[in-house]
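Let us practice reading a record.
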Amino acid sequence: MLFWLIAAFIVVPFPMTALAVRFRVVRYALHLLALVCYYTVGSIITAAVYSNRAHDTVFTTDVHNVLLNPWFLFTGAYLGLYIPYRLLAGFWLYRRA
């Protein structure tokens, strides 16, 4: 399973870049989705930090509960693919100029 996760992390940004370079709508959709994911991850982290500070519980088990949140996992996974996509897209556009 770890092999497939690492392979997807390496392979998936390439088709994202190809589609984004070819279609402007895809590029805007990827950016919009990244923006929504960024604010979702930030909100989840903010809520977890506030909850820990409000209850005076700063234990690693409380912090690790954030990692079990499916919304955090999905949005974080997309951002993990979006960053290499942006690097590849920047390289592609720089190379073409």
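A brief commentary: The mean pLDDT is 89.
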